[in-house]
Amino acid sequence: MKHHLILLLNFIAVPLLAQDGGGFIKQGNELYREGRMDDAVNAYSKAVDGPHKYVALLNKGNALYRLKKYDDAVKTYQQAAASGNTDSGLRSAAFYNAGVVHSNQNKLEESIEAYKNALRLNSSDTKARENLQKALLERKKQSGGGGGQDKKDASKKPEKSRLNQHQAQNQLDKLENKEKNTQQRISEDKSQYGISNEKDW
Predict the structure, then answer these.
(1) Domains of the chain (ranges plus CATH)?
(2) Taking the chain (201 residues) in consecutive chunks of 10 residues, what is each chunk's mean pLDDT?
(3) SS3 67
(4) Is 65 exposed, middle or buried (0-12, 13-18, 19+ CB in 10 A)?
(5) Distance CA 101, CA 39 (A)
C-alpha cells in the first residue's frame, strides 16, 4: 500500500522598504515566483545582513531547496532557526522546512527531530504534526521490517508489536483518512504556501 507524505515548505513573503533590506526580499520573492531561483538566492543573500535577516534566510533556503541544493538549504534553515531569532513562527517554519528536506532525503531521524523542534515552537502546526507522525510510522516500519538488515542490525532483537493486526489496520485507516483530509485542505490552501511536493514512502 502506498502512502504519500505531504511536504510543504513555508514561504514567507514580506513586502518591505528598500532602505532596510526589504527591497531585496521583495525582489527575491518576485524572482522566486518567476522560477529564477539562482537570482532569488542572490537577492535574499543581500538581505541577510539587514533587520529582516531571518525572513531572508528562510526564503533563501526555499530557493536553494528548489535548486536541489539540499545540504545548503538545511544549513540556511538552521541559520534561520538560530536562537537569536526571536520570532517563534519563523523559527518553527525553518525547522519544519528542514524536516521536509530531510524527509526527501530519507533521513528519518533528522526529519523527526526537525518536526519535533517545529512543534515545540508552534504546537498547533498540523502539517508538522502529520509529517512527524508519518516519519515515525516509517521509522517503525523500517526498524521492525523484514530480512533486509545488515550485520550490525542483525544482533538487535526485533521489538514485539504491542498491537494486534486489527488494531494496526485501524490506526493505518485513521492515518489514511487524515492524509486524505490533509490533501484536500492543502489543495484549498494552495495559494497560502509557495511549494508543494509529494514523496512516496
Answers:
(1) 4-141+165-200 (1.25.40.10)
(2) 42 44 87 95 92 91 95 95 86 94 93 95 92 92 63 48 60 68 57 42 40
(3) coil
(4) buried
(5) 21
